[in-house]
Amino acid sequence: MKFLNKLNFEVNTNSNSKALFWMALGGFSFATMGAFAHALGETCDWMLIAFFRMLFTFIFVSCLAAHYRIIPFLLNRPLLWFRSLMGSAAMLATFYALTHLPISDVAVVTETRPIMVALLAGYLIGERSGGKLWIILIISLVGVLLIEQPHFRTKNLAAFVAFFAAFAGAVVMICLRQLRDIDPRVIVTHFSGTATIITFLSIIIFRNDIDLSVLRDSTIIMMLLGVGVMGTIGQLAMTKAFAMGEAPNVSAAGYVKIGFAATYDILIWKQSFEPITITGMALILISTAWLFHLQRKTPKEIALPENTTSF
């Protein structure tokens, strides 16, 4: 149980260096999960991949909750249920995108979440956003259009789904700001359990003819296990990072996920990046970095969640 004891989420704002390590581990884990999911997309239904991802996480975090005697399903917190439902939608959209797009494209597009958080917070929870935020948003959207432009040309639905995943993820992050009184372990367990049930029901309703014969292949089973393991490590590592460090510094470290994802695309799938794609990636990274700079200067006006759990 020594490992479980290390997974406490007490806030320690003087541990930024350790928080950056956890964030880098989370970024590597999520990028590796994306690589497994992308490879599995050639033979497995994307909903089946998502189901195994959430099932494994739910089993693990349930053991974690039981160890700490935590009750994860709070029936009297509607916002927690809404967070779990939106997180489930974001998770499903992410896995659809991962199996239909290069994983680096998905990683970059989802990095627009902090910008959407800053924009939506003004409308949903009354946090003020200045005029500079609209400039940041425009730059970010231009970057998304440049990255996804080849997919728009081929009418690839995944390009729009990836952007929806970022939007739903932003709503999740705003919900987390309002749920700061709840232990992050409760949030992770509640979400993973809800997402597992929703994914299972979605398979029954929308994918009743899904090919389960692929589960006879031991290689596919190991890869599905890899999706679950790496996704769980990434989720716990990023939660730990946000609990230990300052949100702007930790969020900026999330860029490492893009680097890992691009490396997988280049080494495994021999992906080449056109100048227009590189320009789009640069615009998103610049706009997000600008947002973090503004947050340091005016933390009360533009703020990200202090504790977050990625889907």
Distance between the termini: 25 Å
SSE run = HHHHHHHHHHHHH
Q: Unreliable segments (pLDDT under 50, ≥5 consecutive)?
A: 300-304
> Helix proportion of residues, in percent?
over 70%
Number of domains: 1
**Helix and strand composition category:** mainly alpha
Task: Quote the beta fraction.
Answer: under 5%
Shape: globular
Helix segment count? 13
Secondary structure: number of strands: 0
Give the mean pLDDT. Answer: 84
Radius of gyration: 19 Å
Largest sheet: none
Tags for this model:
311 residues
Short description:
Helix content is 74%, strand content 0%. With 311 residues, it is mainly alpha-helical.
Structure explained in plain terms:
This protein has 311 residues and is mostly helical. The protein has one domain (13-297). 74% of the residues lie in helices and 0% in strands. The protein is built from 13 helices and no strands. The longest helix is centred in the C-terminal third of the chain and has 27 residues, at 218-244. Mean pLDDT is 84; it is low at 300-304.
Structural topology:
Blueprint: H1 2-6, H2 16-40, H3 46-67, H4 78-98, H5 103-110, H6 113-124, H7 131-153, H8 157-178, H9 184-206, H10 218-244, H11 247-252, H12 256-269, H13 275-297
Helix pairs in contact: 2-10, 2-12, 3-4, 3-9, 3-10, 4-8, 4-9, 5-12, 6-7, 6-8, 7-8, 7-13
